[in-house]
Here is the input.
Amino acid sequence: MLSPQMPSPEMQLADFQSWLAAHQHRFENVLSRLLPAPDIAPQRLHQAMRYSVLDGGKRVRPLLAFAAGELTGAAQARTDIAAAAVELIHAYSLVHDDMPCMDDDVLRRGKPTCHVEYDEATALLVGDALQSLAFQLLASHPLSDDPAHQIDMIKLLAVASGSRGMAGGQAIDLASVGKPLSVPELEQMHIHKTGALIRAAILLGARCGQADEALLAALERYGHCVGLAFQVVDDVLDSEADTATLGKTAGKDAENDKPTYVTLLGAREAKQMAADLHREALETLTPFGARAQRLCELADFIVLRKY
Ligand code: GRG
Here is the structure.
């Protein structure tokens, strides 16, 4: 029987869903305010940037930054900037990834991809400009009382998104098309391509508040687990869900002859792997008790998502 003080699982889920919806809604306005207005020159580029960032996406990385920031007592105004910088890098990666020279896709977040709606040159510039804006935000808003600490945070995002992080993972991905990768090789690719930015979101959110080395190490481990779980679930959804549900073309990995957790392990074992990573992520947070509740709920959200 539940004690009178303990909320039921249904109440806890409803509480998480309202936290999620409130942050998603509020953050949309934050992004809209931080992006260049559509009527400022060059209008077409600014409109394409807004098209690629606003009105779509689950905002998983910002939500992770907010939850980590709540754990370390960070001010919302600071985590907003950290979360926005990460989301702009993410949006840039999606725009470039969809281009004909990479994944060549026509649908993203339920609407035509940037190069289809605009053109290839504009899509290239959108990615470039979003990346620059991300670092402009981190450099021009106070994120820490210690300037050296803030420079470390800027470096953290630069490393996570560069050739030793997301862009490097993408390079491994492009080089692996049609090749038989082992599971450890696939893991290395995803730790960089998807995982690096997810870990950066969590660490940047945490570093907007007071985080000691032990907490940062635990969050790094949590980020490793949810980042990898995110990708395993992505592979399962790509093979099992439909295009309308995903808002992007389903079955793209098989069509592009890309190695995935599903092709390497089979759907059953891939789902088991996601469940194991989910459990490890939750175990990592045990020492932080109720303070880490939102991060636990986000781990559930990432693993149990349907799109
Ligand atoms: C072009 C430098 C460069 C990198 C691209 C992350 C990436 C590397 C490409 C994205 C392509 C892709 C489908 C990766 C698999 C996992 C992933 C990042 C999915 C999209 O992220 P979600 O589900 O997307 O968080 P939303 O739209 O919800 O934000």
Summary: The chain has one domain: 16-304.
